[in-house]
């Protein structure tokens, strides 16, 4: 005999989404989004004037590498299954100048690091290089300045063209112009082709916002910037503007496009992913990393879950790849993970 309470009736739901949440196995089966180590790219910092790796205090667990420790870290990342490495060079203070000449010097810190990474790793990973002047200029801006101290778009493009060729020669598989100059993708593509580097791909920083979340990065690269980048990076209130940047970057020949930062801009990421017919990357930036680490260090959040949840959200919003300082840890968590946790 069925008790009245167990009889189905109008007050009882017919559809029961909870059926697909009952066990870890069923949750794993129906998961709409997966994060795989191969989707992740590890950003790394290298200096050539250190005896030992130097911790970045606002990014616990992240260091400025020596050339040797960089090679070991890259091997470790590749071993963990991480899909690529994005390299940032940190020059000594005394080699910075107004035009960032260290960035185009074949013996500059970044180009040297690219050369040794490529010779050690060959094609076992995707070697990416940040293509921007801000680490190399004494004023810290992403371009060269005009007589009035403003960032000069077209003069900067000439520097980027030169940088692109040097980075390709040094062994980058992918160059990533991140300075938000108008026309940067076109000049970089043309310069690469003219120098015979047709196979080197361009990952465009397409939607890059002037964000407070870059704070720890500025420590990581020893930035000399005073002031801000508001005349070239995008204004946080703007959403449609990113579609304009996307249209331009695709027309100029971008092979992949990027949205940055990631978590505060998931709406932008979703728009870009809905429109782009090339792979879309998202950059979970230094401040996003720092927020997770700071809260976790106080015991306020579960770090590992937060790392995987944020990466999942970024993938769910439409990113096919994610640049994250958590790449190696996340790759290990993913490999060890039985995705259905029972909590
Ligand atoms: C510019 C560049 C920046 C970042 C990546 N490329 C700094 C900036 O725009 O000020 C920030 C990355 C991060 O915060 O993790 N070359």
Describe the structure.
- With about 350 residues, the chain is an alpha/beta fold.
- It has a single domain, classed as Aldolase class I (TIM Barrel, Alpha-Beta Barrel).
- Helix content is about 35%, strand content about 15%.
- It is built from 11 helices and 10 strands.
- The chain has helices at about 25-30, 65-80, 110-120, 155-170, 185-195, 215-220, 240-250, 265-275, 285-295, 305-315, 325-335, and strands at about 40-45, 55, 65, 85-90, 125-130, 175, 200-210, 255-260, 280-285, 320-325.
- The chain has an 8-stranded parallel barrel with strand order 1-4-5-6-7-8-9-10, surrounded by 9 helices.
- Strand 6 (about 175), helix 5 and strand 7 form a beta-alpha-beta unit.
- Helix 4 (about 155-170) packs across helix 5 and helix 7 (about 240-250) packs across helix 8.
- The longest helix has 18 residues, at about 155-170.
- The radius of gyration is 22 Å and the shape is globular.
- The protein starts with about 25 loop residues before the first helix and ends in a 7-residue tail after the last helix.
- The relative contact order is 0.14.
- Ligand PBG binds near residues 132 and 229.
